[in-house]
Amino acid sequence: MTKKNVENIADIIAGIETGNFRQASIGKYEFSVTKPNKEIEVSVCRTGKNYEDTGFASRKFQKNVKWSEVYNSINDMMTEAKYDGVTVTSTGW
Predict the structure, then answer these.
(1) Which in 35, 43, 61, 65 has the greatest CB count within 10 A?
(2) Of 86 and 80, which is predicted with more confidence?
(3) Does pTM top 0.70 for this prediction?
(4) How do the domains of the chain map onto residue ranges?
């Protein structure tokens, strides 16, 4: 993972902490954060040229989550999105 990608992930986590949510990109991956009343959801969408190259993954965390747990889940989410093979048009991406 490049320094810029790590900075983007750090920006996502900073956005969670401050409530200033942003989207961030890492290559083909687009990250988004939502903060419902009791949980924080981090989502990733991988866009590709065809159906097999497109995927989506998300994780929900409690508000008091350790940010290292969020950070450590991001790589798993990227892998899951890479091989998910689902369409994401209905998710608002």
Answers:
(1) 43
(2) 80
(3) no
(4) 3-91
